[in-house]
Amino acid sequence: MNYRIENLIDRKTVENRIKELAKQIEKDYAGEEVYCVGLLKGSVVFLSDLVKEINTPVIIDFMSVSSYGSETVSSGDVKILKDTDLDLRGKHVLIVEDIIDTGLTLEHVIRYFKESKGVKTLKTCTLLSKPERRKVNIDIDYVGFDVPDKFVIGYGLDYDQKYRNLPYIAVVVFE
Ligand code: IMP
Ligand code: MG
Fold it and tell me: Which N-terminal residues, if any, form the signal peptide (predicted)?
C-alpha cells in the first residue's frame, strides 16, 4: 500500500512535554520508589526519555502483551506474552504505554495488576492518547498528548515494525 509520512509533533515539543510529565511524576511520588513498567515494545523510547528526567528512585520492568487484530477488536482478549520480572507486591507501580487507542489493552493490564500483583498504588502514563477511539472508560493519570484518530508512528510507535526510531511523532497517510 502506498503511503506518505507527515510530521505531527516535532522533536523539541515531545522532549519538553516528557520533561513536564517527569517533573509531575517526581512531585506526585515525592521521593518514593517508583516501579515503571513499560509495555513492550512501543513504550521503550518514551520510557527511556521519561525515567532520565525523574529525580526520585526509579526501578524499570517490562511486560509484553499481545495486541488483538483489528478484526477482533471487540473481544479485547489480551494475552500476556511476558510478565514482569520483579515482585511488585507493596510497590508504587506506574504502567507506561506508548498510546492508548481503544483502551482495551490497558484495561486488561490494569485488571490483571489489581487482581494478581498486590501493588500498593497503580497509576498509568502514556505518551499519546486517541480519545475519539476509546471503547472503555479508563483513568489515565499522565498523558503526553491527545492525538487525532490517525495512524501515528515514531518515538517507539511502529508501522509494520518500522519507524520506532523516529525522534518525533508523525502520521501515516495512506494514498
Ligand atoms: P488499545 O488497546 O486499542 O488502546 O491499543 C493500544 C495499542 O495499539 C498500543 O499500545 C499500540 O501498540 C497500538 N496502536 C494503537 N494505535 C496506534 C497508532 O496510531 N500507531 C501505532 N500503534 C498503535
Ligand atoms: Mg503498545
Answer: none
